[in-house]
Amino acid sequence: MRMIAYRLNGGDMPRTWYNILADLPKPLAPPLDPRTKAPLTDPAPLLRLFPKALVEQEMSAAREISIPEAVLELYERYRPTPLFRARRLEKALDTPAHIYYKYEGVSPTGSHKPNTAIPQAYYNAQEGVETLVTETGAGQWGSALALATRLLGLNARVYMVRVSYEQKPLRRVVMETYGGQVFPSPSNRTHFGRQLHDTDSPGSLGIAISEAIEDVLADEKAKYALGSVLNHVLLHQTVIGLEAMKQMELAGEAPTILVGAVGGGSNFGGLVLPFLGESLRNGNRSYRIIAVEPESCPSLTRGEYRYDFGDTAGLTPLLKMHTLGHDFVPPKIHAGGLRYHGMAPIISHLYELGYIEARAYPQKAVFEAGEFFAQTEGIIPAPEAAHAIKAVIDLAIEARLTGTKPVILFNLCGHGLLDLSAYDDFHAGRLE
Ligand SMILES: *Cc1c(COP(=O)(O)O)cnc(C)c1O
């Protein structure tokens, strides 16, 4: 029998996360204090927003960071996640390329986001925090945080970008079923939200982050949680790549091309950083590493690399990253999880250093690829994940035309079963 699935046992889960900061050839530019514009050496402002353990992880130079036992136990409900060989997709494309995907859609909320929501809720609970406040775009992050906070005995308040709140009511129901409170953003609960509340602003992640931070600053028992971009989020997501390395060994192949969709950069980083780190340390292998983004929110391919705020109101520290500007309001595309103005500092830095390439695709081509994948491999991908699929299909066709045999590994970061209205719009020709 030809294998298509490579599964690990619970006992094979990684016991540590991998921190690429230990292996970077050139250090990351430090975050800056938003008022003085000096490097943020005193972590006090960060400690108002995040628990100490996460601030330490954000700045840590240790290569490996232990995963707490309680987090491993919660991970084990859905991890290790499977790795599949996409044989039917290969055949349909008539390509000599071998295509593998790591499937993160098996988590309870259907994406990779619980990989960081669980440890974030855990460290906050350890330090006596009662409520986590956050923003969400498509609702994937809010769902993951609502789940994790409930499992660890905390409350969740979620500011959901208005356009998604209206387009994706089912995600709100997921969050509410876990006991989270959800508000469309701009809301009338914050000063910043009230300035925009009566306009027809569709909202943006930047605006929702400003609202969430303002909410936290008014509640001493609350802290803030971010679902992407920051170093500690990418750190937690490295469980994806660490497992995939073992699974590619089971498959008896080494990938030559790594692909992922990028919003803030966490599922992409989670897959590729362990592979890249090993090659930086040992110099034994080189990979083509490709980040895929929407043409309508192209922070890597069109953004500038400079210091910018993480939110619209300018409350966060300044991060050096690829950015479309913190007041950028992206068009209403359906891949809500990819509508952020900035890119993780780690991913931006690696892109500048030339370790990563980027591609941008328009939404119609992306849905065509997602549907082709559903009809060959059987999984309806999240629209975000379909960006990676579009790039993989193009690479596989290129391989056929040039007679090369790449081994492509991509991250199928979520399923699309709560995104069916977007597929419906695609079928009906309603996508712009
Ligand atoms: C949130 C999300 C993304 C984008 O976020 P990253 O931090 O770049 O991973 C991509 N895919 C899915 C399914 C998501 O939920």
Topology (SSEs and partners):
Layout lengths: L4 E2 L9 E3 L25 H6 L2 H8 L4 E3 L2 H7 L7 E3 L1 H7 L4 E6 L10 H13 L4 E6 L3 H12 L3 E7 H6 L1 H9 L3 E5 L5 H7 L7 H13 L4 E3 L6 H21 L5 E5 L4 H17 L5 E7 L9 E6 L8 E6 L21 H8 L4 E5 L1 H15 L5 H20 L4 E6 L7 H8 L5
The structure holds pyridoxal-5'-phosphate (PLP).
Q: Can you tell me about this structure?
A:
The structure is a single chain. With 432 residues, the chain is α/β, with parallel strands linked by helices. The protein has a domain at 9-13 and 68-111 and 231-427: Rossmann fold, CATH 3.40.50.1100. Helices cover 41% and strands 17% of the residues. The chain contains 16 helices and 15 strands. The strands form four sheets. Strands 1-4-5-15-10-11-14 form a seven-stranded mixed β-sheet, with helices on both faces. The N and C termini lie far apart (44 Å). Bound molecules: pyridoxal-5'-phosphate (PLP). Pyridoxal-5'-phosphate (PLP) is lined by residues 111, 113, 140-141, 228, 261-268, 337-338, 382, 384-385, 413-414.
